[in-house]
Amino acid sequence: MKIGKLNWDDLNSIIDNNRGSIRDDIRIRGGIGEDCSVINFGDYECVVSTDPITGADHNSGKLAVHINCNDIASSGVEPIGILVTILAPETCSLYDIKSLMSDINEETKKLNIEVLGGHTEVTSAVNKMIVSCTIIGKGKRNSAVSTSGALPGDDIVVTKKLCLEGTSIIVNDYEEKVKGILTPEEIQKAKNYTEYLSVVKEGIIAGKFKVNSMHDITEGGVLGALWEVSEASKLGFKVYSERMPLSSITKKLCNRYNIDPLRFISSGSMLITTHNGEKLIKELNKSGISGTIIGEIIKDGHILVKSNKEEIVTPPERDELFDFHEKML
Fold this sequence. Notes:
The structure is a single chain. The chain is built from eleven helices and 13 strands. With 329 residues, the protein is an alpha+beta fold. The protein has two domains: 8-140, CATH 3.30.1330.10; 147-328, Alpha-Beta Complex (Phosphoribosyl-aminoimidazole Synthetase, Chain A, domain 2). The chain has a seven-stranded mixed sheet, sandwiched between helices. A six-stranded mixed sheet has the order 1-2-3-6-4-5. β12 (302-306) and β13 (309-312) form a beta hairpin. α2 (60-73) runs parallel beside α3 and α2 runs parallel beside α7.
C-alpha cells in the first residue's frame, strides 16, 4: 500500500462499518471530515480528537501538540488536556525521548494545556520516533461547531498562509538541499513557520462569532479540507486558485519540487464557512490574524477556478509531502 492516508472510499467504509455501539450522549460523531467527537455532559460537553505525527523528523513534539489542539480549535472550544503515546525505535536514546517530551511540555504550557498521561515504549515495530496524541476540550452545551454545518452561500475563509507546516517540514528536514533555492534569511523565516501552526486563537474567535462550520487544514491541503467540509455538509464548493494565500517561500519550493500547494499539508490555517466572511476577517484582524475569502459554498459540485477556467476537484489522495519525501530518498 502507498504511504499516507487511506483513500476516501476505503476509509469511509472502515469507519461506517466499525462504530461499535451508538450512544445517545454522543452529539457529534467523528468521521470523514469530522475530526472531533462531542460528548454531552449536561451543562457542558467534552470534545475529543486524536492524531499522530509520521511525516516529519524535526519538531515532531511541537507538531503533535498543535495538530491535535487545532482539531479541538476547529470545534470552537478550548483544549484543556492531552494524552501522549511515544513509540521509539531501538536506535533512539533516552535523551531523544526526554527531548521530545520537553518540546511537548513547552508547547502545552504556551497553550495552557495539561499533559494528562499516556504511554512510552521502545519497540522494534517502528524505525523512527512516532508520537500520537489524544486531545480533550471543554465547552458549554451545544457550543461546539461541526465540520458538517456549512450552508449554501457561505463565504469560505482561510486564515494566515497556506502550507506553513509543509514548508517548515521541507526546510527543517532538508536544509542542505534547499540552500540553493532559498536565501539564508528565507530559510530561517521558513523554520520559524512552526511558531504559527496553532489555530486555537482563531478557532475560539470563530466559535464566538457563531460560524457555520470549521475544519483545520492538515494532510491533503486546502482542497482536501474543502472536500471533507463539502462531503460532511452534503454540499459543494467553488474556490479560486488566484485567491489562495501563499508565501513567496512556499511558492519557490513548490515550483522547484513540483508540489501542488493546494494539496500540501497546511496546519496553521483554519478553513471557516460563514454567512459574513468580511465581518469575520475584521474580527480576526483585531487579534492580528489574517483571513482571506477564497470562494463560497454552493449546492453541489467541487470546483476550482484557475486562470478563469473551471476544474473539477477530485477526492483527496495522499498528501504531496509523502511524494516529496520519496523524491528525496
